[in-house]
Design a protein that fits this description.
317 residues, Serine Threonine Protein Phosphatase 5, Tetratricopeptide repeat, Nuclear Transport Factor 2, Chain: A, 5 strands, 16% strand, flat
Length: 317
Amino acid sequence: MLPSLLPAIRSLLVACALAGAVPAALADNLAEAQRLLKQGQQAAALDKVEEHLASNPGDARGRFSKGLILVEMGRPADAMTVFSKLIEDYPELPEPYNNLAVLYAQQKQYDKARTALEMAIRIQPNYATAYENLGDIHARLAGQAYEKALQIDPAKKAARLKLSRMREVGSGSLGDAGPGASRLSAAPDSPAAGKADRVPVAAGNADEQEVARTIETWARAWSRKDAKAYFAHYAADFRAPRGMTRKAWEEGRLRPMRKPGRLQVEVEDIRVAFADGKATVRFRQTFSSPALTSTVAKTLLLVRSGGRWLIQEERVG
């Protein structure tokens, strides 16, 4: 049985703050929710978060807080619904995947936990918490395999020794509040404010600069919420990520464009490489909206078509 998650959540909720400006009154509701939770008033804390979300239902920070409070209240199924919906609305964020994995692990659904953590790492390759949690999951899966081996053949001394080692490794495992143990994740810190609106164009030869300018106009169309211009940057044979249909992928991109408030997409550190008539572009993307700010590493594969560079494939991480 996995140890309780509650002590870990109490410390994490204080740090749970998805970036993005919200009105002071709404921010006060979240601060009050944290205070109430520290005092053990879970229901009152949830009421404050619900009050916050009633005025700003798309706010990812409030939704993240709600998920953590629901875990604290012993309602993991409801928390999983919250984190799953966050993944649906903000697929570029790795933290909801990590937290969903912790809840899967609590239910001994280790394969699902592993899949969620692998997705978190694919989105954010330097996500140390997810790597640690993934190590714990692999240890649990290994322990299950050794237990099965001993059930089939109790005389296997090597399997018994390995199982003992796995149990030692797992003593500070997923969900444990002890020192160095894995944790539920808070959300990303906000990047430095005051960046210029324009997207820098990478230095290089004429072809590299042309590709970089394509990335620049793509980011600007996204920032303007100009869906027609934005989707025009994608090739007819664009391969949507994670096996999604193009229609479902486009709908996911349209959701933040339809919401009120400013949307801004910035790209930095553009690097272009050419091979087999295609361009691979790697850069750091910062996405900002009233609901959240996130920074991820991104790779786009572009093909030349009709005298233009068009995006054929898009990967986070």
